[in-house]
Amino acid sequence: xxxxxxxxxxxxxxLLSVAQIACRLLFQECYKEGINNIFITETYxxxxxxxxxxxxxRTRPGQIVTWTLSSNHTSRLAWDIAIGPPQSLxxxxxxxxxxxxxxxxxxxxxxxxxxxxxxxxxxVPKSWKMPANYKLEGQVIVPISSKKKVQLIIVExxxxxxxxxxxxxxxxxxxxxTESYIAQAIKEGVIQExxxxxxxxxxxxxxxxxxxxxxxxxRRAN
Length: 222
Fold this sequence. Notes:
The protein is about 40% helix and about 10% strand. It has 7 helices and 6 strands, in the order H-E-H-E-H-E-E-E-E-H-H-H-H.
């Protein structure tokens, strides 16, 4: 990942796994509500980049783009979106619809903030849990440009079903096999090491594991 302070990171894998799952769930539910032209504009942001953006409009020329030096982008828990055609880039009606869906999912929407609203901004705490009656229903394609649309690919995949049914965090054998699988994917460079930490720390849920499995399969295929 580039450390250039002028470069925007749109890689979902640079977020903590809890935020990745929340973001995929948000895009899935938006897709189901007929909103398929949203895309990611930024995920992880280094503190150096945050400082650089904060200086804009203050000690550096340009329009003010952020109101804080402390952002959950730097904690890998936040992401920004924009809208593709035919709407304008930050179409308020669409962002409000997405914000309403985020509320149902326990995801914080910057449009709900008092004072300085940030409608393209979404974030979750580390403690976020997927609400009851929701699940990732398949492979969620999260675009990073207006050239692609949100997709939900539901495939009756026997291997995915086996993963979901077999996962038992209390089973030492299953944990060992899963740890080996995740470690191999990390070695291949397709996922971050934080996923292995989640497994070892006992916070790997079935939804988390299935979403991770889909991500690994997708990236290996590309």
